[in-house]
């Protein structure tokens, strides 16, 4: 993941006072993305509010990593799931939550270790029983050959 602090200071990386107003490097104008679409402009990372759509900062960063030059239409389209090359915000967040749940559960062990010992003891006993049965069979076979 890109660390925003490590990027050169531009309108895309400088913090904004709000989540909807920022300077556009493409048209060199300050926009309020909350009230107007500015579809061909490239919104800085600090802009997270596009009309009625609020973008999660982590999703915005992930999208930025894929393409730094997405214009407003591409950002909002991706958010809504219209980008065939990037997940919608809803799906992306679900995947992130699922990944973190899997990582959290990876170190946990649900089974009691003593239960595992019981199972392995049962399996050892079954193996010994099988060996006893096979040795009985071989003894019977050799006894019948001897007669």
Helix-strand layout with pairing:
Layout: E1 21-24, E2 29-32, E3 49-50, E4 53-54, H1 57-66, H2 72-80, H3 89-106, H4 113-146
Antiparallel strand pairs: 1-2, 3-4
Q: Can you give me a brief rundown of this structure?
A:
With 147 residues, this protein is mostly helical. It has helices spanning 57-66, 72-80, 89-106, 113-146; strands at residues 21-24, 29-32, 49-50, 53-54.
The fraction of residues in strands falls at 5-15%
Mean pLDDT: 73
Major sheet: order of its strands?
1-2
**Secondary-structure class:** mainly alpha
> Judging from the principal axes of the Cα atoms, what is the shape?
elongated
Largest sheet: 2 strands, antiparallel
The residue ranges in which pLDDT falls below 50 over 5 or more consecutive positions are: 1-16
Secondary-structure element string = EEEEHHHH
Q: C-alpha Rg, in Å?
A: 32 Å
Fold and architecture overview:
By secondary structure, the chain is mostly helical. It has a domain at 18-89. The chain has four helices and four strands, in the order ββββαααα. The protein has helices at residues 57-66, 72-80, 89-106, 113-146, and strands at 21-24, 29-32, 49-50, 53-54. The protein has a two-stranded antiparallel ribbon with strand order 1-2. Strands 3-4 form a two-stranded antiparallel sheet. Strand 1 and strand 2 (29-32) form a beta hairpin. The protein is elongated. The protein starts with 20 loop residues before the first strand and ends with a helix. The relative contact order is 0.08. Residues 1-16 have low confidence and may be disordered.
């Amino acid at each position: 993941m890109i660390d925003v602090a490590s990027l050169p200071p531009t309108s895309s990386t400088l913090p904004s006072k709000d989540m909807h107003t920022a300077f556009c490097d493409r048209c060199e104008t300050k926009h309020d993305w909350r009230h107007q679409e500015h579809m061909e402009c490239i919104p800085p990372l600090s802009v997270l509010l596009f009309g009625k759509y609020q973008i999660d900062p982590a999703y915005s960063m992930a999208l930025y990593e894929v393409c730094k030059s997405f214009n407003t239409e591409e950002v909002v389209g991706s958010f809504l799931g219209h980008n065939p090359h990037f997940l919608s915000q809803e799906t992306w967040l679900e995947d992130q939550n699922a990944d973190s749940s899997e990582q959290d559960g990876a170190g946990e062990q649900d089974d009691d270790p003593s239960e595992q010992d019981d199972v392995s003891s049962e399996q050892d006993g079954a193996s010994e029983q099988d060996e006893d049965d096979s040795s009985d069979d071989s003894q019977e076979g050799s006894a019948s050959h001897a007669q």
